[in-house]
Every structure is written in C-alpha cells, then in structure tokens.
Design a protein that fits this description.
Length: 244
C-alpha cells in the first residue's frame, strides 16, 4: 500500500443523487467540482478512468413507473437525465484541465459521441476521462447494470461504486446505529442476502466476469485515490489478493 496505484484501468460509478449535495434534486456546483477534482487526481496518477453517472437527481425511471407512467417511457427519460449529468461533470472536469469525452448509448451527435467500445478504449489510452451516458440504451436496465456492462466491455480492472455511506452494512446505518460494516463479501453473499448495493443484474454480471467492486464513501476526501492505491476502503466484493 502507498502512493502507487494497483489498478491501471477503472470505472467509477456515481449515483445522480450524489450530485444534488444536501438538496434532493438538481446539481450542486460545489459538489460537482469536488468530484471533478478527485477524478482529476486519479487521472494524474496515470490510471485510465471511465465514469458512469446516474440520473436520479433529475428523474428516476422507477419512480415515474410507480406513479403510472409507462416503464419504458420513464426509463428513457432517466437515460436523458444521465446525459445532462455527464455534460455537467464534463464541464467541471475540463475546468480542472482534464481532457474528457462523453459517449452516449443514445445517439445525440450535437452533445456526445455515440458509444463505440474500441473508440472508448482508445480515448482512455490517450489519457482522456470517458463519461458513459445514456445507461445501456435500453429500458429496464439500471445505471448500475450499465456500469457493470461498460466495465466488462472496456476490460476495467475494478468498479468503484461511490455512495454516501462507508460501504455495505448488514442493516441500514441511518436507521440502525448498531449496523455492522462488512469489509469484504462475495457476490453470492450480496445476492443471497438481498443487500441493496447494486441490483442483482449488475452483481451477476460482475460475478460472471470476475469483476471486483469496491463500495465506498465518496464524501470522504481522497477515498478514490486510497482505494486505487490498495488501501482498505469501504466494502470489497470479489477483490483478489493483488490489491493487498
């Protein structure tokens, strides 16, 4: 452990709700810039970096469907929300001097490149942070699943799942002060216990592709760097011994 990264290519998953800061909706420019600075720090270590960002701070497809909206229609609206967030993060990153590309699963040539796997890998090899927007391009799939899919496609070595808590607990730590933090879990532990960290499709995809996941608190400054330099941060799923 130390200041040297143990991963060469990573995918960071940030929920849309994280961008709202202390609010429930919208984008907090201060929080956005803080996240951009942390991502820039990782890129400056020479780590090839991709980001998948959710859209829950603007619109959640499941929430719309629960109120009677057609699920496919609602999910497409949620995908468009992720594009807005990706463009906002792109602007914040480029203000730090970090080169970026937004690649969307839904084609919209005026604001983003279409997602092409080999082009995404080439961007990262050239030192650009790639922001994957538009989910998978299909309804009924979460941005967690999009993160697992894109990570597998670009041969990322780990998914960093950013949250507002320190990792995965046996109970909700907000409502249960006695909740216990898990240091490590298997994919099957998460699936069998119904732990709500990523949806079952995303976890199964990671399990099938032996893709490790680190669930950590993004509100602790420096946590991304610590995780990528081999320190024990948050809860680790399927992480092998090469990191410790």
């Amino acid at each position: 452990m130390g200041d040297s990264p143990v991963f060469k290519r990573v995918l960071l998953k940030i929920s849309g709700e994280m961008l709202a800061g202390s609010g429930k909706v919208g984008i907090d420019p201060v929080e956005m810039q803080r996240f951009a600075n942390e991502i820039k720090e990782v890129r400056d270590l020479g780590i090839e970096t991709a980001v998948v960002i959710g859209g829950g701070n603007i619109f959640r497809g499941l929430a719309g469907a629960s109120r009677g909206m057609d699920r496919s229609h609602a999910d497409y609206m949620g995908m468009l929300a992720t594009v807005i967030n990706a463009l906002a993060l792109q602007d914040a990153l480029e203000q730090t001097g970090c080169f970026t590309r937004v690649m969307s699963a839904i084609e919209m040539h005026q604001v983003a490149e279409p997602y092409i796997r080999r082009r995404a890998i080439r961007h990262m090899e050239k030192g650009r942070v790639v922001l994957f927007a538009g989910g998978t391009g299909n309804p009924y799939f979460s941005t967690d699943t999009a993160a697992a899919l894109r990570a597998a496609e670009i041969h990322a070595e780990v998914i960093l799942k950013a949250t507002k808590v320190d990792g995965i607990y046996d109970k909700d730590p907000v409502d249960n002060p006695s909740a216990v933090l898990y240091e490590s879990l298997s994919y099957l532990d998460v699936l069998n216990q119904g732990l709500r960290v990523m949806d079952a499709t995303a976890v199964s995809l990671c399990m099938d592709n032996s893709l490790p996941i680190v669930v950590f608190n993004l509100n602790v400054p420096g946590n991304i760097r610590r995780a990528l330099c081999g320190e024990r941060v948050g809860t680790q799923l399927g992480v092998d011994n090469k990191t410790h």
